[in-house]
Amino acid sequence: MSKALEGIKVLDFTHVQSGPTCTQLLAWFGADVIKVERPGVGDATRGQLQDIPDVDSLYFTMLNHNKRSITLDSKNPKGKEVLWRLIKECDVLVENFAPGALARMGLTWEKIHEANPRMILASVKGFGPGRYEDCKVYENVAQCAGGAASTTGFRDGIPMVTGAQIGDSGTGLHLALGIVTALFHRTHSGLGQRVDCAMQDSVLNLCRVKLRDQQRLAHGPLREYSQFGEGIPFGDATPRAGNDSGGGQPGRILKCKGWEHDPNAYIYFITQGPVWEPICDIIGEPGWKTDPNYATPKARLPHLNEIFTRIEAWTMKHDKFEAMDILNKYDIPCGPILSMKEIAEDEALHRTGTIVEVDHPTRGKYLTVGNPIKLSASPADVTRSPLLGEHTDEILRDVLGYSEAEIAEIEHSGAVGAVQKIAAE
Ligand code: CAO
Question: Which residue in 41, 129, 197, 356 could disulfide with 370, CB within 3.0 to 4.6 Å?
Answer without folding.
Answer: 356
